[in-house]
Amino acid sequence: MARIAVLCGTGMSAFASHLASTSESESSTLKVDSEWGQVPVTMVSFGEDEVMVIDRHHSDSDSRTPPHQIEHRANVHAAVSCLPNLILSINSVGSMREDLPPGTIGVAADVLDLAERPWTFHDEHATHADRTSCFDSQASETCTGVLHSIQGQVAGNLVVAQCVGPQFETPSEIDALERLGADVVGMTLGPESRLVAEHRFAHAALACSSNWAAGRTPDSPEAEIDHDAVNEMAASMRESVAECVKALLSSW
Q: Domains of the chain, with CATH numbers?
């Protein structure tokens, strides 16, 4: 039996129902308690295999939690409490790479997180988690193979820069991040990768290119970034993400 916990956000609010629409699947919902709050989880079963989907922006109201207010400890706690073989982060990102245009998905290899806010489960006793290899190579290779068959090519070994949001970045910030080695930029993978590392669970991350990073739109460097368009673009990649999840279930 394989078990995967999926952490997703922008454009993926319907990802659990998309998975559950697959033939021979069953779904149920539950809430996982934590000292940082309750987390809704949708469990989708494929025979003996299970996928736990957590919307990282979940909220008790009709609004969605903004990225700088997400309680990542609650979400990661809920993910690891299911004892998965793998935790898969699905992240909407702005692309700085010509080979990762909006509508395509790449595979993360590392994180560039210079945000000042610390994220840890250990506030009382110093605990230092190794992050030399943030992401599981086997899971990353499986996703790369699936995406290559769907897209014809795939941008791998991506360095994902972490920004706090909720505003999108400026062109100067994007230039600086690229000089530091970043390929894409997002607002959620940094904290998740830190917290998953503390639990030592296998982790993989897909970078869904939902927009060109600020100042990088071809032939239109002054093009504005609209979140509704970003959300719609991210949603268009649900099927490709689902194919990656199914392949991971089969290979684990």
A: 3-251 (3.40.50.1580)
